[in-house]
Design goal:
Layout (H helix, E strand, L loop, with lengths): L1 H4 L2 H19 L13 H28 L6 H17 L6 H12 L3 H32 L3 H20 L4 H4 L6 H4 L1 H22 L2 H28 L6 H18 L7 H12 L4 H31 L6 H14 L8
Length: 343
């Protein structure tokens, strides 16, 4: 299903329809008076924030890798995380992240099970942070909860992954109890179960270490704050001031909707939800649609271009075997991560 949905002949019409629906429902053509002369300075600052987001991604990844005993310098991680963000958004179920796992193995000797654990924390746990914190922000804003109470709820969201793993919950290892030995073969399924256990053990070691959990929570929060600041700046450039907490909630929930849609970059789905939520905050529909489109221009587009450039830079330095080696090696080495000769 996800592979079918990711075909351009399918997702391009869907995304195009959703974007047109946003434009129609928000009556963007009526925004001429609001958008006559958007201030360029907030838009320029919003674009520059994208570079800060990439640095935060790399800092987070560096700490997670260091926590596993496989430290990687910040510099080499910058193009890797930029590329990972783009390919993550373009492939079903973030399956393109397998390329980053291979790059970490090929360039820095990071075992596949370790790289997979780091990627799970960066993707799955981070999107959980986004969904939970956005829900707290949106509901808290709507109910008029005091800011200290909302901050307390944010802290609970931040520490919850560590608490879950400290209590012994192991979601990846739980998959090993599925009756798949008859499908994959007893020996191969045993190796898969072992790999899943190693991944879960590494994730648990990261999230139950207070320092690494704190670094992950802080860097992830700063990434979401930068995204929210970009949205706030786009709105400000057209003379509309958004409540930062409400903006956090609207953007976070819209982004989660885009992730669940499985469309590349959530194109169309995120915009539709974001415009609707901005409208519910009292933003005029034409301005809400324009802000949603403007956010794409200052956030998604620059990061996508940066990811593409990073791919070109990284692909020029691939070890022998190229990207074909990714497809051939990862499924084998993920379940058999013993030391091997360098590619």
């Amino acid at each position: 299903m996800t592979r079918w949905l990711r075909r351009p002949v399918v997702w391009l019409p869907i995304s195009g329809f959703l974007l047109l629906f946003v434009a129609w429902r928000s009556r963007v053509w009526e925004a001429s008076e609001i958008l006559q002369s958007p201030s360029p300075l907030p838009l320029a600052v919003a674009v520059l924030l994208g570079a800060g987001i990439v640095v935060l991604w790399a800092l987070r990844s560096r700490d997670l890798l260091g926590a596993t005993g496989h430290p990687v310098r910040l510099g080499p991680l910058l193009p890797m995380v930029a590329f990972a963000n783009t390919i993550n958004n373009l492939t079903p179920g973030s399956s393109g992240e397998v390329v980053r796992a291979w790059l970490l193995r090929a360039h820095h000797g990071v075992p596949y099970a370790t790289g997979a654990a780091v990627i799970i924390v960066e993707r799955v746990v981070a999107i959980g942070y986004m969904a939970a914190s956005a829900l707290v922000a949106w509901v808290g804003y709507g109910m008029g909860l005091a800011l200290p109470l909302q901050l307390a709820l944010f802290v609970l969201v931040a520490v919850s992954p560590g608490v879950i793993y400290a209590l012994g919950f192991r979601p990846a290892a739980a998959l090993g109890h599925l009756p798949l030995a008859g499908v994959l073969g007893v020996d191969r399924w045993a190796r898969v179960r072992s790999a899943l256990a190693r991944i879960d053990g590494t994730v648990a070691a990261i999230l139950t270490t207070p320092r690494h959990l704190a670094v992950f929570a802080v860097t992830t929060t700063l990434v979401f704050a930068a995204y929210t600041a970009q949205l706030w700046l786009v709105a400000w450039s057209v003379g509309i001031t958004l409540d930062p907490v409400a903006a956090w909630g609207a953007l976070g929930l819209a982004t989660v909707a885009g992730v669940l849609s499985l469309l590349p970059f959530g194109l169309g789905a995120t915009d539709l939800v974001l415009a609707a939520m901005l409208t519910s905050l009292g933003v005029p529909p034409p301005a809400a649609g324009a802000i949603a489109f403007g956010y794409r221009l200052v956030s998604t587009l620059p990061l996508g271009l940066l990811g593409t450039a990073s791919y070109a830079w990284l692909s020029a330095r691939l070890p022998a075997g190229g990207t074909r080696a990714v497809i051939d090696a990862v499924p084998v080495d993920l379940v058999d991560d013993r030391p091997q000769a360098a590619p």
